[in-house]
Amino acid sequence: MKHLLRLILVSFLGLAFLFPAHAQAEKNITVFMDGLAVPFDVNPTVMNGRTLVPFRALAENLNVAVTWDANTRTIAATDSQTSISLQIGTPIALRNGSTVSLDMSPLIINGRTLVPLRFFSEAFGCQVVWDETAHSIKITSPPRTMTTVGFYALGDQETSSWTNLFGQTFPESAKGNTDVIKSLALGWYSLDQEGNLLTTSRTGWQRPDDYQKVLEAAGKYQLKTEMVIHLTDGDNTITNLLSDEGAMQQAIEMITEEAGIYQGVNLDFEGLGWQDSAEELIHTRESFSYFANQLVDRLHAKNLKLTLTLHAPNSAYQGYDYQKLGQIADKIIVMAYDYGSKPEPASRVIEAVEAAVQAVPAEKLLLGISVPNETPDSIITKVGIAKRYGLNGIALWRLGLVSNEMWNSLRATVQAI
């Protein structure tokens, strides 16, 4: 009996030595798209040295429409440029009508279709990197056409917005980074509580003496421009303005008159609703919406657009009725930042975007990105959030602070309009 037990033990140890890699279940593969984890109800798997991924989950994260034909066991997907078709058990796929050989045939696991990762990446123009250490797949989605806005604010010699954008020392200009930024939000104006338009403000925003040269350079490189009226409510300036009908009409008149040299107006009224009571909050929201509605009527009569730059819905400033403002404004920039950590936590940014798209059509929304709070890698993730939720584009605060590495990251993920 002892001899038999000894023989069994030796045999077991021998098997363990021969198959050490299978002593534990294979570690799950984590997939990231633009730095964001892709949730799966069936995990990616490796078969015959090939990685297979759940097709529908990845496609939907790229805003690609997917259909399934149960009769032919065929999955089809299409976006504006690419159309593909795969059949379960067949090592041939169609891409825009041409046949493509697959490393492995698509298969079904627990009701989900898995396809070779290589085919997916090539079909939709993604870049894919395998991280052996982290046992993860990092996918970068292809550049997407979107609106790109750069806040043009005065800087010091080291953070010149002009040089950062045009690649030359003022007043010389070149193409520079104008392939990435196609709209300028020119932070040159403010208001007082009587409704007077100011070209200087207590917060440091001012219109430069040579502002016409900026407009000339913008025209030269086909950049759209909008005048930004920046105002904070720390001393109740906005509250007092919005409580006075005469002051509001004065502001609207002066803004409309000045706006003729731009393509639009950008209201950046910050700090509304902080520490308001429930009753005060209702009044604040209604007053700002009323002002925006009065202004947009005057602007549209002159064929000018209105952009609102707003605190995020999950910020401490709740004085903005996103649903009503979404019906008024042509675009809304969501300032989804200043959450207290760097880079900005993707979970909070996603929370802000999800709240915004519940109230405003995604095609009207731009994701505001605070450049000082991001890195070249994390800025791709923020753009990825805008892509995932189908937003109109992104807005960078601010020019003058975008590093060369960040410009390259943006070029890899955005096709600016």
TrEMBL record:
Coiled coil: none annotated. Residues 156-413 form the GH18 domain. Pfam families: Cu_amine_oxidN1 (PF07833), Glyco_hydro_18 (PF00704). InterPro entries: Cu_amine_oxidase-like_N, GH, Glyco_hydro18_cat, Mao_N_sf. Keywords: Signal. It comes from the Bacteria. The keyword Signal applies. One of its GO terms (biological process) is carbohydrate metabolic process. Residues 1-23 form the signal peptide. This is Copper amine oxidase-like domain-containing protein. The lineage of its organism: Bacteria, Bacillati, Bacillota, Clostridia, Eubacteriales.
